[in-house]
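Researcher: We're teaching a course module on how sequence relates to structure. For the next exercise, students receive a sequence and then see the predicted structure as tokens, so they can try to spot secondary structure elements on their own. Here is the exercise chain.
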Amino acid sequence: MLKRASVGLAFAAIAFAVVGRSAIAADAAGVDPQQRKEILEKAADYLKSHQGEDGSFSPRIAGPGVTAVVVAGMLRNGFRADDPVVARGLKYLEKSVKADGGIYDKGLANYTTSVAVMALKEANKDGKYDAIIKKASDYLKKLQNVGDEANVHFGGLGYDDKSRPDMSNTQYFIDAMLAAGVSKDDPAIRRALKFVNRCQNLPGETNDQAFAKKTTEEDKGGFVYVPDADDKKHQTAEGGLRSLGAMTYGGLRSFLYAGVGKDDPRVKGAVSWIRRHYTLDENPGMKQAGLYYYFHTFGKAMTALGEDRFEDAKGTKHDWRRELFEALKKRQQDNGSFINKGDRQFGEADPNLATGFALLALSYTKSPAK
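Model: And here is the predicted structure for the students to work with:
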């Protein structure tokens, strides 16, 4: 969640084969590839007409952040790096690289650098962006909270080096580190997982915070935005902290990406919470706020979990790719864009950002190759 810039995003890089715009392969099952193609082409036409002359998208919101989301979304859906919209966006990201290795404008250094790393990774053919990605990952490590491991902020990251760490920014960091080729055993990843542990409503060995001991059965296993008991906005009547949908999917994905096994109590706890709160009608705990952020994080986590049909707590089995596709399809505007009207907290009232998120989410609706 990006309160300071009224925007939020999250996405991770998973290797994929780049194909031409007109060469979207047929799915093994579930989603009609022709319908996906129509959505993609309408969205691309919208983005083409709303790109700045310098290649950017909505730079006033988060510097290069929105541009990175759009570029990654297009690349993950088969648009080539030499597609005019993508190519101009990539050049804008390159021009946003600072001498210290960060990729930002005037602030939000962790946020924008992390998402830019993942966008550049998607386009990194023949090692073109190796040096930029390496310097950016080294820069991000310098933003991480280190020092006293007993401090609840240990291992976490906020929007920049002066911000309170939160689950959202920390998952971006983990995604960017792994996309940059950093080992799962790297100390920076291990420290980040310590913070992620403390964001999970799972009292015990992995979460030593007092609020976790006040977790209700409703919230157990899910993830909070910040592991601070004084977070009044998300505090429960029992004195604990409310679990949130996008944070829980992000926490689950962070565990799986960093090598935590599916039989680990932390992973089981997150999956159990998701089974009890499975929905594509809202962002659990936030209603309609950050809906496209949620769709994208949902798709990434479900892909990492690897269950083609996900069974909820009521025993209903969901073709989640198909359901995610339908949730996106019905929300596309006539001009090809997506928008979450009135969403100032996540910034999805900006159609460039919402469309970028929607494309990232859409990339996970394609059935995996058998």
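Model: If you want an answer key for the exercise: The longest helix spans residues 33-49. Residues 33-362 form a domain with the Glycosyltransferase fold (CATH 1.50.10.20).
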